[in-house]
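Quick one:
INPUT:
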């Protein structure tokens, strides 16, 4: 009697996975369900670091405009900032852009994993914290593409007309004047950027595949994490109003 032939599962390497997750996330998460996130976080951090260095000068005018906008908003709230402190803040703001990979990939992975784990409890998806971090790390890939897209727009747009980084988003925020709009509303509109929504899709598929739940439950878990993650940056603004 012939014994059935066992077909080994298909595995992609790290680079294949981080690219393929953009268009076939279910395939990537199925074959990588039990992988650890360490190598993926390191590779995506390095990729994001290279992209950040390359794009810094192209997005510079919009970074400066964003800083000026934040100073105007602070003045409108009655917060007087000495010129020396403003110059120091601008310097740190410029340098801080180069730390984007830490926020997008590393902090985004660990905090995003925690939020996804919280969402999994609500959606009754069975995932560990490590698996949730893996999903969050893979979901950073669209954000890295967003940096590249911003650089391309910065290359073709007139920097002298820069109003803020919202101008470089692909979503409703770019069509609104941030100087005349509530900062809270601007952050909410920024959350509807194409690359943020793309990230949400990857989160939802990842939670469904890894957590072995329906797509609706997976997206419920992802939506809970995404809403909380969008709300967290609003807290400082709300507290200073």
């Amino acid at each position: 009697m012939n014994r059935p032939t066992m077909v080994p599962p298909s595995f992609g390497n790290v680079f294949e996975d981080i690219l393929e997750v953009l268009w076939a996330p279910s395939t990537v998460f199925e074959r990588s369900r039990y992988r650890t996130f360490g190598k993926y976080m390191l590779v995506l951090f390095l990729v994001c670091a290279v992209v950040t260095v390359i794009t810094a000068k192209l997005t510079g005018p919009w970074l400066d405009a964003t800083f000026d906008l934040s100073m105007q908003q602070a003045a409108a709230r009655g917060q007087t900032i000495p010129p020396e402190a403003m110059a120091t803040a601008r310097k740190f703001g410029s340098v801080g852009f180069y730390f984007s990979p830490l926020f997008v990939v590393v902090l985004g992975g660990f905090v995003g994993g925690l939020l996804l784990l919280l969402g999994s409890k609500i959606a009754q998806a069975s995932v560990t914290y490590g698996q949730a971090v893996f999903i969050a790390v893979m979901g950073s890939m669209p954000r890295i593409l967003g940096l590249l897209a911003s650089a391309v727009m910065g290359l073709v747009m007139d920097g002298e007309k820069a109003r803020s980084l919202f101008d470089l988003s692909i979503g409703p925020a770019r069509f609104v004047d941030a100087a005349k709009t509530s900062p809270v509303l601007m952050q909410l509109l920024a959350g509807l950027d194409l690359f943020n929504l793309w990230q949400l899709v990857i989160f939802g598929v990842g939670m469904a595949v890894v957590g072995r739940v329906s797509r609706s439950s997976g997206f419920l878990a992802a939506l809970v994490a995404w809403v909380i993650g969008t709300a967290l940056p609003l807290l400082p603004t709300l507290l200073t109003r």
